[in-house]
Design the sequence.
């Protein structure tokens, strides 16, 4: 791809804005920093595990693109795909794949097990399940978590991918780590492309009806699955920042740079509304590194005349009046809250005043009880003295 300036000017119409030289330079600097940080972390570790394998193959490299306006009005759960010059997971034999298909699953299991399907890829596909069995077997949260942990990549027939959020729930869709990637396993029109079905597929089509009538051949399915496994995924949300994984720390700087150019081209042409005019900046970064800029625009606004209002313009005045009205509405809530607090304080004070007489009454009752005890003691003392006098008089009478 041709070189371009690192800073875009207003009105620039280049489809691929980033400079190959600048991207390669940033890739070298990023990988060098990540390798140095990994060595320092390993040297400072208290205990070294000799059996621990290198994590370079698992440390991702991200391309982040910031836009001037949100790329979408709502979050999109179906990711987009970008074919990379250097695929992410296509050649890794340890990557396990779960293939979610439309009914019936037996047809697709037979395709994966057939001789026309590549044997190496077939071994990596450890589960083939249709939507009906998926909803029946993995209804509970525990079953969904088990399925999530058993496979590295999840692929889904694009005809049913929009129904998976309800079937798989937050376990799969709260993050973008293992969201099902859409794959096209059928042909819109079998006669149009002139591809003939295998004898096994013809038999299955005859027995199972029109549900697999337009299914692709085993070889075409394998190509589609390999392309999806190695592709970069674009998750569009209601934000001005989009991150796409374009490689790993084990990649070379040249591979990172070429993947970055491919992703930026796809973002500008397919995913970002209004293309390069809406693009603000592009960065490369690792999981724990700063973002290295490889391109940025001089024009900060998408529509300068509309986004930046002139001083004293009627549109600016109308906007300020609208804000003032909104603030007035918010200020009305404060007195209501103060009145509520005041009422609560008055209720507390009233309750306290009610308790005060009760305390006085209790004190008076305590004084009364103490005075009654004193009277009783006086009566007892008086009776004792009276008995003593009676005993003394009786004793004197007996002596006479």
Sequence:
């Amino acid at each position: 791809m041709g070189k371009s300036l690192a800073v875009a000017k207003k009105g620039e119409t280049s489809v691929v804005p980033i400079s190959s030289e600048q991207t390669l330079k940033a890739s070298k600097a990023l990988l060098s920093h990540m390798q140095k940080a990994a060595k320092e972390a390993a040297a400072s570790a208290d205990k070294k595990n000799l059996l621990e394998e290198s994590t370079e193959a698992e440390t991702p490299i991200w391309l982040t693109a910031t836009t001037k306006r949100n790329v979408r009005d709502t979050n999109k759960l179906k990711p987009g795909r970008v074919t990379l010059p250097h695929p992410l997971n296509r050649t890794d034999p340890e990557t396990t794949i779960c293939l979610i298909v439309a009914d019936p699953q037996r047809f697709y299991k037979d395709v994966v097990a057939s001789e026309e399907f590549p044997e190496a890829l077939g071994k990596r596909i450890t589960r083939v399940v249709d939507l009906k069995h998926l909803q029946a077997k993995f209804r509970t949260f525990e079953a969904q978590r088990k399925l999530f942990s058993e496979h590295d990549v999840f692929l889904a027939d694009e005809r049913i991918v929009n129904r998976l959020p309800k079937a798989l729930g937050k376990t799969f869709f709260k993050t973008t780590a293992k969201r099902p990637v859409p794959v096209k396993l059928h042909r819109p029109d079998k006669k149009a492309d002139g591809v003939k079905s295998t004898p096994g597929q013809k038999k299955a089509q005859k027995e199972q009806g029109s549900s697999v009538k337009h299914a692709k051949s085993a070889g075409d399915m394998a190509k589609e699955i390999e392309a999806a496994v190695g592709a970069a995924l674009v998750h569009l949300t209601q934000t001005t920042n989009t991150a796409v994984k374009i490689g790993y720390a084990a990649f070379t700087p040249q591979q990172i740079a070429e993947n970055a150019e491919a992703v930026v081209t796809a973002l500008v042409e397919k995913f970002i509304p209004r293309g390069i005019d809406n693009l603000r900046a592009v960065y490369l970064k690792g999981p724990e590194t700063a973002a290295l800029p490889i391109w940025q625009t001089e024009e900060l606004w998408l529509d300068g005349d509309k986004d930046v209002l002139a001083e004293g313009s009627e549109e600016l005045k109308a906007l300020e009046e609208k804000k003032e009205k909104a603030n007035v509405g918010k200020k009305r809530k404060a007195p209501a809250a103060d009145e509520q607090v005041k009422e609560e304080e008055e209720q507390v004070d009233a309750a306290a005043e009610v308790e005060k007489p009760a305390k006085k009454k209790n004190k008076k009752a305590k004084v009364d009880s103490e005075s009654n005890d004193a009277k009783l003691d006086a009566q007892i003392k008086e009776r004792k003295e009276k008995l003593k006098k009676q005993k003394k008089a009786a004793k004197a009478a007996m002596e006479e």
